[in-house]
Amino acid sequence: MDIRFVVTPWRAPAELLQLRRDLYCHGEDSIKRRQNAVNKVSAWRSRKQEIPLLLDSTADLVDVVLQDDQDKVPHGSLRLLYATAISRFITGLSDTQTTLIRDRPSWFPPGQTIHLPTHLLETRHRIVHRHLPTLAELKLAAKASLDWLWEWYWSQLDSAFSLNNPLTTSSSSQPDSTLTTMDLKSHLQTLLKPYLRTRKSEIKNKTKSSNAATTTLSALNALSASHSPAIVHTLLLQHLTTPPDHAILPTDKKLDSSMSGAFLIWTPLLLALCSSSPTFLPRLLAALTRAMNTPRPASVARPELDPVRQGMCEWVVHVLSSAAWRGVVRGSGSGGAVADEVLGRCFTAPSYWNVRLAGLVLEKEGAATGLGKAAREGWRDVLEVACVEEEDGEGMDVDFEGADGDVAGAVEEVRQSELVEGMVSGPQKRIGLWKPRPIGALPLGWEEDE
């Protein structure tokens, strides 16, 4: 077999993996590390003109985000920078998509095809053929592009390098790539059981660093190498937030009971997952808010008395405002972008728990959530309107105790008549002793014209 050598700008796979960690890093030194990663890609461009399109596009998008964070570029110029980076990425990928489908990489997860989200294609069309989108829309498109690049390119590098290196490939060390969804769920539960045991022991011994989180993260990454990371993360979040498990909550969760134990157990693992994958934090918050808004049969009449939904609400507040999560949340967006996104989702469908979650988030100080003073005041105005609408939507309960029986009966009769009118509204068929007549027959008393 002929050996094919490929010249790459990076010296070894480890250098490219380190670049991946720097481009998508979170934390206090994230700006410096991301800037160094962009500079390294610029050096690679001078070393070799042909750089992988997805790598090049990632560096361009991260570079624009960094310039935006520095707040030194004028508004109009910033829109052009975002538009150029986004359109270059989407156009380049669309031109090579046919080749990628035909020459499918051997390490790519089976049963999946590379495709761009429709909203990104629409954004590119507007950039090229219509009016330039607003800066807020371009920022969202840039974030969605970086998330797509992580899921479809950067997260696949571990699997690609392990398959290309026979010394690191072992049938016993890699999970079976033909596992069904039920097998994956069972495998995830098997991975989480030792984590719970070890983590409880660490809490009891007051261990600062969590070896349990590191070990479990390595096992989850190995599982993601043979399956799509999106599938693994989705099944993991289902196990943590959906019935019958609700593993992220205490087993005996009662209304208004403490959640500190659950926070101590699961925070290290969730933080490790957020640091290793930039798409995990938005998926986590979406799963928590979805579980918070999912009614259970036992609490349909009084949703505010549901301890499970209360626990999910407290988890979202903890992620957005606690000191342990601050580095990850701030690294996922400038300022209070993550809190803004959650609040926007709450007020889009202002249910009881959405309004309560928004109120709890806005009660926190701006330093905790990253929201500026103007943003908090604007969201508080929206919260007041949502609270008024919720109160107006509720039926008024009238207490007839001690009132005159005739008055109470009259009011009840009016209610019943309104109910009947509402039930029979619309086209009605009159009931009576009507004799059937053929179509076109003249009514009685009418005579034909002579």
From TrEMBL:
Domain of life: Eukaryota
GO biological process: maturation of 5.8S rRNA; maturation of LSU-rRNA
Any one of the GO CC terms: Las1 complex
GO molecular function, one term: endonuclease activity
InterPro entries assigned to the protein according to its UniProt record, in alphabetical order: Las1 (IPR007174)
Protein name from the UniProt record: Las1-domain-containing protein
